[in-house]
From TrEMBL:
<dbReference type="InterPro" id="IPR008380">
    <property type="entry name" value="HAD-SF_hydro_IG_5-nucl"/>
</dbReference>
<dbReference type="Pfam" id="PF05761">
    <property type="entry name" value="5_nucleotid"/>
</dbReference>
<comment type="similarity">
    <text>Belongs to the 5'(3')-deoxyribonucleotidase family.</text>
</comment>
<dbReference type="GO" id="GO:0046872">
    <property type="term" value="F:metal ion binding"/>
</dbReference>
<dbReference type="InterPro" id="IPR036412">
    <property type="entry name" value="HAD-like_sf"/>
</dbReference>
<dbReference type="GO" id="GO:0016787">
    <property type="term" value="F:hydrolase activity"/>
</dbReference>
<keyword id="KW-0460">Magnesium</keyword>
<dbReference type="InterPro" id="IPR023214">
    <property type="entry name" value="HAD_sf"/>
</dbReference>
<protein>
    <submittedName>
        <fullName>HAD-superfamily hydrolase</fullName>
    </submittedName>
</protein>
<keyword id="KW-0378">Hydrolase</keyword>
<keyword id="KW-0479">Metal-binding</keyword>
Length: 602
């Protein structure tokens, strides 16, 4: 039996001729003002979409595409047959600027009436998709997805909390003093960097300069940070020293390590564990957490009660269904093993899919135990999973609808017959998912960062605080400019040269000195006011580290620099694609430069 939807609409449309005929919107009829209730059969064919047999529309094929003025492929673009005379319609006559203005206004009104956010307003939403490099989704033939923290989001307190517990149990069995310690996710945020040589956790700006630091669980003062790192930059290529927290999976490890640094400093770690320093301690914590994952107890617990660890997202499977029905080939490429992947995907997807679909129906290819990032870097043997129990056999070529273990990205490209920028890969790990797929294969990339939603809310909440802080800084800048001019006038006067300004020239020595003194006192008092406010900036997101994407008041964090460098688009969750369409053309926003403000002011 066909499903039905009852829709009540109260709309007043402005009187104008539209390019789109009223029949395309059967709810609206031909009247300009109306109230109506209609029942729509979901299985009906829209009169607005002509079939390919009619020759009204055509889709640009992979062999006939061009490159548009933004450098994007036109493959997948929809074309209209102008021989049918549609370009002679009255609504299309006249200067294109006028036609476009009228149609854009009409389209915006219609989108508002239907409750659909337009792409511009979607940018100003915690669930927007943000673009760093222009991306035409129509030209994408395949979309690959990571699973953990991408297609399913774990409750961080539950998942990472249990990972922490297992890690601490293993450390206890190794002889480390862990009694009295508890998981505290507020200690760390994604994008921080562990300094394994000094036992510190640091936050760097986009250039690598360290802005905040914590030794063990104690935040260091600005002076301590300057004395310790004034001449050093974070260089992620030096993996023996710096460890970047790429993903939420890093939270439990970082919390455990920083707490154990305190125990090492207190002399609480027994001498029979060997002469431990901060780097050796990091290896011990990493080993304990690795055992928690490898031994299987953690994943077994999660598989037995997934509802305690996974936050459901009913919109996510529908977003993927839209993409699949639009002709995109969907891939699941995960490092998780087959049994865990199947159990968790069943729990997260099957109940939200229509028409008795199961999660496997969405994907043209599923690859488990992929061993990323090596999956993107080199070739490994591929095995086909042939039974529900996970029995595998070697294979040399993947096929549509198959379930595989291992292999490589190049095998995927060869099997699908598509390469490079025809594939979009979506994941939560900046290095394993986003960086390596782009660097080695030139795949287009999307980063999932759930914390963006919390940061967006924190930024809104912080607007008043930041506005007052910026006002004080601007006031200090103006006062400081006058202070510097008078100081220069005094300097020139002592050297027997004329002052730079007429006003300063007319002041006697006493007036000049007194004015400088007063201005200096004002600036010092402003500093006393600004310093704690600057320290508190971003505390609505995290009291220790401030905002995820910012380092200080003006600059971007090292994390944000990595996102801009490697992720073409980024968003908080995969289901945000549902608010767009599989045909979306994402435009990168204009990047501001230091001299832009001066150009515009002129």
């Amino acid at each position: 039996m066909a499903a039905t939807i009852t829709i009540s609409i109260n709309v007043t449309l402005r009187r104008r001729k539209s390019i789109i005929p009223p029949s395309c919107f059967p709810f609206f009829g031909n009247n300009n003002s109306f109230t109506m209730t209609n029942t729509v059969n979901m299985n009906m064919k829209s009169r607005c979409v002509a079939s390919s047999e009619g020759g009204v529309f055509s889709v640009t094929s992979p062999s006939q595409f061009e490159i548009d003025y933004l450098g994007q492929s036109t493959k997948g673009d929809l074309n209209v047959n102008l021989n049918l005379g549609i370009d002679e319609e009255p609504g299309l006559r006249g200067p294109i600027e006028e036609v476009a203005r009228m149609e854009a206004q009409g389209a915006e009104n219609l989108l508002n009436h239907l409750g659909i956010p337009d792409p511009l307003s979607a940018r100003h939403s915690p669930r927007g998709i943000f673009c760093t490099r222009t991306l035409n989704l129509r030209s994408i033939s395949a979309i690959g997805y990571d699973m953990d923290y991408t297609l399913m989001h774990y409750n961080v307190m539950a998942w990472e909390g249990r990972a922490y517990d297992y890690c601490m149990d293993n450390l206890r069995n190794m002889g480390f003093p862990v009694d009295g310690l508890a998981f505290d996710p507020e200690l760390v945020i994604r994008g921080l960097v562990i300094d394994k040589e000094k036992g510190n956790l640091v936050k760097a700006d986009r250039f690598g300069y360290i802005k905040r630091a914590m030794h063990g669980t104690r935040m260091l003062s600005t002076r301590e940070v300057s004395e310790m790192y004034g001449r050093e930059l974070v260089d992620l290529r030096k993996e023996n020293r710096w460890e970047f927290l790429n993903t939420l999976f890093s939270v439990s490890e970082a919390v455990a390590y920083m707490q154990m640094v305190d125990r090492l400093d207190d002399g609480a770690i027994a001498a029979d564990l060997g002469p431990l320093e901060y780097k050796g301690l990091y290896k011990a914590v990493g080993k304990a957490l690795f055992r928690a994952h490898v031994e299987g107890q953690l994943k077994s617990e999660i598989m037995s009660k997934p509802e305690l660890f996974v936050e459901p997202d009913p919109e996510l499977p529908l977003a993927l269904l839209d993409q699949k029905e639009a002709g995109k080939r969907l891939l699941l490429i995960t490092n998780s093993d087959y049994h865990y992947t199947d159990k968790m995907m069943q729990h997260s997807f099957n109940r939200f899919l229509p028409n008795n679909m199961i999660w496997r129906d969405l994907f043209d290819m599923v690859i488990v135990s992929a061993r990323k990032p090596e999956f993107f870097q080199m070739s490994h043997p591929m095995y086909e999973v042939v039974t529900g129990e996970g029995l595998m056999r070697p294979c040399f070529k993947a096929h549509a609808g198959g379930l595989y273990s291992g292999g490589s990205a190049q095998m995927v490209e060869n099997s699908l017959g598509i390469h490079g920028d025809e594939i979009l890969y979506v994941g939560d790990h900046i290095y394993t998912d986003v960086s390596q797929s782009k660097v080695h294969l030139r795949w287009r990339t999307a980063l999932i960062c759930r914390e963006l939603e919390q940061e967006y809310s924190a930024l809104i909440h912080n607007q008043g605080h930041r506005a007052k802080l910026v006002e004080l800084i601007n006031q200090k800048e103006v006062v400081g400019d006058l202070f510097n001019q008078l100081r220069l006038a005094l300097q020139r006067r002592t050297k027997g040269r004329p002052a730079q300004t007429l006003a300063a020239t007319r002041m006697d020595d006493e007036e000049l000195t007194e004015s400088i003194q007063k201005l200096l006192i004002v600036m010092q008092r402003l500093d006393q006011k600004i310093a704690p406010m600057l320290e508190a900036d971003g505390e609505h997101f995290n009291k220790r580290w401030g905002f995820l994407s910012r380092a200080g008041l003006w600059d971007k964090s090292h994390l944000m620099r990595q996102i801009e460098k490697y992720a073409d688009i980024y968003t908080s969750r995969v289901s945000n694609f549902l608010h767009y369409t599989p045909f979306m053309y994402f435009h990168a926003q204009e990047q501001s430069l230091a001299h832009d403000s001066y150009s515009f002011r002129q």
